[in-house]
Amino acid sequence: MKSTTQTIPEHTSLPRHIAIIMDGNGRWAKKRFMPRVLGHKKGLDRLFEMVDYCHQIGIRNLTVFAFSTENWRRPEEEVSFLMGLFMKMLQEKVRGMHQKNYRLKVIGYRHRLSTQVRELVEETEQLTANNTGITFTIAVDYGGRQDLLQAVNQLLQTGVKEVTEDNLREYIALGNEPEVDLLIRTGGESRISNFMLWQLAYSEFYFTDTLWPDFTDKHLDEAIQSFQLRERRFGRTGEQLPPEEQRPD
Ligand code: FPP
User: Fold this and answer.
1) Would 109 disulfide with which of 12, 60, 103, 141, CB 3.0-4.6 Å?
2) Which atom number of ligand 1 is nearest to the Cα of residue 212?
């Protein structure tokens, strides 16, 4: 897609699928002597802007880690604030995103969400299922290992004799979407924290100290530019790549 503002670089080889671990909300708030939860609120506002920007520059899939299977261990007040934010988002923002032609998906364990949230998630996915704009996926109560385990168990129930990449992929979250090209983690940590273990197998990683609420469209441009300088060999040697995929030394 052609850029529409001066700030957007020419995205020659855009990642089709970007995943983001939105870390640093708590520290962003602490630096301002605010309660941690206000960092999450600010983080959610930033997220909405980021989805619009990704859609605008032609990213096909954006997947964000909003709540991990391990995040239940956080103080109860913070957990219920995050769940409340998620519900408010589903209630207040989905219609607007639908009008913009976004397709919304939620991955993770659904049975631990409240009935109301689960119903809202189902309605949202049905409402936006046939949209053709960006696919925006929110990972809630999600863990990469748990995702693999549930996929294997579902597959075994079909009675297959052998687990293969192709038949397992059918049961893995987003298995039929393009694999993640670029993983971004904000907030200064360099780990993937049990995020999409299967889907990140060949992703390029981009770690930045910028805290999630401070991560602007310009920061995303920088991450994409860094991605565009990588040589993705997928097991081959650099010399085997077609000239347009080779990067200068
Ligand atoms: C990690 O920052 C962030 C999270 C665990 C939650 C991310 C959530 C949002 C960006 C907004 C909410 C979105 C939805 C859809 C519910 P942290 O709290 O670990 O930050 P810290 O490392 O600075 O403490």
Assistant:
1) 141
2) 10
